[in-house]
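Following the same procedure, backbone shapes were mapped to integers, yielding the entry below.
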Amino acid sequence: MKRKLLVLLISAFWVILSIFNQSCKAEDKAKRIDELMTYCYDADMFNGTVLVAHDGEVVYKNAFGYANFDNMETLKVNSAFCIGSIGKQFTGMAVMILKERNELDYEDKLSDYFPEFPDYADKITIRHLLNHTSGIPNWMNFSVFRARPGDFKDDITNKDIFDFLIQQESLDFEPGTKYSYSNSGYVLLAMIVEKVSGEPFYKFMEDNIFGPLDMKNTLVWNDTKPEIPDKTIGYSQFGEKDDYNILTSGAGSIYSTIEDLYKWDQGLYTEKLVSQETLKEAFTPGLLNDGTPSRTLGDSTWGYGFGWLLRKNNLENIVWHDGGFNGFNAIFYRELNKREVIIFLTNKGTPWQLYPVHDAVKSILRGESYKFPRIPIGIKMKNLIDENGVIESINKYHELRKTHVGKYDFSEDHLNSLGYYYLNNQRFIEAKVVLKLNVEMYPNSSNAYDSYGEACMLNGDYDEAIKNYKRSLELNPDNTNAVEMFKKINKKMMTIEK
């Protein structure tokens, strides 16, 4: 009897010790993640909310920065952000719900729902739309929807996109022959959901997904422009207001919070919305007509399901998506084998700022070595120019490049982005100096000369503009923009001479 009691006590001891060790590990991971996120916030690399969970337990949750920089309203963990293309997985779920109810089929043709399309719609299935293999062009690539380069017109609707698409006489490729990411396909899926269900897309989502999962702070932005509690405002990486401004749905348009997205993550392990058998197909890479998996991200290991980027092998089973529109960017990353989820929502910056932060958090979760992300030099230079002026800041740039190469990311694109920030704000002196520095640092870059040429042209320095556009063409004879700029400059110079 005493021996049995001793064995039970020893077993209980090891169980308690194991729980204690797991708790210590979780606390250590939370501390490391907090140190990382605090560093990124202090370096002006992250403004937003973050949630990290493992095996159904939240490891870390926090908010950094401001929901609205105009009135300095601070962020909270329940602040609502536009989640961009992460919304595609919700559209995929809406289609799966209707499929499970036998109200549509993945092999239904686009022409079954929209006979307004040309005959090629007879070859496009709902499955093609879900997998981005339809050949329908991405509406975001067309200048007709732009107010100016980089900016979409306000209040674009699904109908606007639909009316444009039905005028397209051909596809980008034969349906099912290749993968090509198309927001247009998911706009059409949302419209199909409306046709089949007989109600607005935003209402269907509220009743059939957000409601059942108790996602009380999540909604589809729509033409009724509903009130969004704790809504954030979008800003560029350099602090310009760059808010969400369109009314499309299906490909994006959802506002949500890290806590609601965690409910979404946990709900996908249940059958509250659809069966696990139905859900399995969402996590299965689409196939091309020849039977091979469609691939994305320029990597043969990644596939695309129903609104999810996928990678599965002996070591991992990843389903994820990122999203971005104007100043909003987000990552929703799930590792199914470990029931891990990493959620980032931001309202200031670019998507490229998020990826190295995400990679570091992922390494912390797995107990691997990691580094703090390098600070984009464009952000640092913007702050230096604001404080010290442009000339002194150029000197500081060269000093940093010699002494802090491991701390800052000196990539060409970062200076280029800063130069265009000044161009867009008609601060031509700063733009010229910054973009000239980029040319000096990257003398073999056609794009650097092209950008500096544009700054010279807009500042009325036509001779210098021609010189740089010529150099850009020497480095890249296919640079059609440079050719067009030559024509514009010659026209301006002829007008001046008259």
About this structure: The radius of gyration is 26 Å. The chain has 17 helices and 17 strands. The first helix runs from residue 2 to 42. The longest strand covers residues 317-325.
